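Handout, section B. The chain below has 719 residues.
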Amino acid sequence: MLMTGRLTLPTDIDMVDETIRLKNLLGADALRDCDGTAMPEELLTQSAKKYATYYTTRKDNDWANENPEEIQQEYLISDRVTARDTKLRIKLMKGFHTEQLKVNIIDDPKRWWEVVDRTTGEVVPVYKWEFDGETEEVVIESVKYHQYTVSFLAFLVWDPVHMYNFITNDWKDAPHQLTFDVRQPKTQIHVKEKLKRWCEENPHIDVVRFTTFFHQFTLTFDENKREKYVEWFGYSASVSPYILEQFERWAGYKFRPEFIVDQGYHNSLFRVPSKEFRDFIEFQQIEVSKLAKEMVDIVHEYGKEAMMFLGDHWIGTEPFGKYFQDIGLDAVVGSVGDGVTLRMISDIKGVKYTEGRLLPYFFPDVFCEGGDPIGEAQDNWLKARRAILRSPLDRIGYGGYLKLASKWPGFIDEIKYVVNEFRLIHENMQGTKAYVAPFKVAVLNCWGNLRRWMANQVHHAIWHREIYSYVGVIECLSGMPFDVEFITFDDIRNGIAEDIKVIINAGDAYTSFSGAENWIDPEVVTSLREFVDNGGGFIGVGEPTAYQFEGRYFQMSDVLGVDREMCFSLSTDKYNELDADHFILEDIEGNVDFGEGMSRIYAQGENYQILNKDGEYSRLVVNDYGKGHSVYFAGLPYSPQNCRILLRAIYYAAGMESEMKKFYVTNVDTEVTVFEKTGKAAVINNAKEAKHTELYIDGRLAYSLDLNPMEMRWVDCRK
């Protein structure tokens, strides 16, 4: 029997018959348009929900051209330029694409721009520089051989996402879409009235899919139309004098461009956020949520559902922020590239349902000669499936141009396989929660729950190469039998919750993920030492607790049993010996993958055990600290084997090794998820090869299973 529902398919004007065929074949219950397309009239009478993409900030060039002062703005920072004389000229738009960005000469540069001597860090007084409007240069009274930058406002005269789609799809004739600022008074009124008219003119549309609301994440192109910098969490394009004056009244202090440009780092997710930037985030979330609610209320007045796309102009609507639930959305949809991004969507509260757009996107950069869309779909599903079993999405769907997918040999069969497995999960879990361990695991960083399941992401499950060795930690956790919390250092200072048994700190030194100067706060280190001493577990990956201070690099080196050699203690001999016999490695055969790892890690203290070494230095170390345990990994990229290692490490750190085998499979390429209330268990094969595994329930062998490649087998867990 074909199960139906829970699936959204994209369509296009020239795909009417094929859309209907695939809708029936796959059991889809919703249809959607895509960027650059429109819902065909012939499909509006189909027995399916109809989604329409709605843009609040673009696709209205007439309005933008008539109101140039209300076009969206972005804070930019010029190149660093060295003065070779006492007068320096800095060309503002050097390195930027002038079709995307235009210097704001409407608002007073002396009020809203900033010139900084980067050699001293001092702000150059406004009387020591002038703006030359003809050449678009800032002329500075400079100190010879000091470096300078100019932070300035620019109008976004080409919407960044439209520009990205334009370049990716090699569009030739489509006009560039301007992006206007809905926060501005005139534009705000215009956009609300336009939404009302649209709702009246589109009675057959059931779901208004906002893409998204008001402020684009930072996506800036260079003069060659290449991406210059991308920050999916960036607030650089959520600024204007109108907004900043409001912020100053709310915050009680003067705004500086530096709060946004951040020395040229643009407040990357990896930066420890300043108080001022955190204030700006909160202010924007308050204001954006208020205005977004007004838009959602309009949609509801016309009997339609309001859905938000988790991307594009999503700044200020972060779903784990304090104000998101006030918006009143019916649903959130986002792109799913792995288990982490799936949990980022499926864990959202305050909406009626969540939907994941699975990859690959039906775009010509994948569906092309040399592309492997079937392989990408399989890899995507293997990671997403683990997380769905733990925290299920309500719906899945696809995006892009359906004709590309329908013409690719075998791809529709792959979609059919994925959709059927997704429906089976819901059929067997029946709305109940999967079994989890009797304790919580916490991930400690500077962002905490605000960036829940978002750590280290560029966007759409694309992660930075440099964090390959750390991102595996949260990818592994996304499909593990644990309730996972994301906590900040303030949470540590205020007291660790009693139900947290293991805390994980992973990342490079001085980043927001490791913690930087937080580790020289006595409140933080003493609280964590007490936590472990009393039986808690601490797991560090990469450079946890790192900050060079008082003769130590890892400030929790006594708890971790390791430190990193920074060449200051080379004169102190280290006598590190390997002893790989340990609970953590019992299932593991062959080499352990530590990714790029971390160099010069040495064990120290009296209670450590080195489980893996690389020459003189260590890569995996456990340590006893009072009643508690710690585990150190030099790196932990995602793989089925590393999932098993981390699983064992967590149970060991918690002091609950025996609990791990309540529900347990022997093959590291397999995992089990149990729904005790329905009596069903899913055993999944995470490999593209056939695997044999044995399932133990309450310590006894229950099933001996031969699984096909990528198979999900449902069994009775009450046997």
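Note. The longest strand covers residues 147-156. Compare this with the example in section A.
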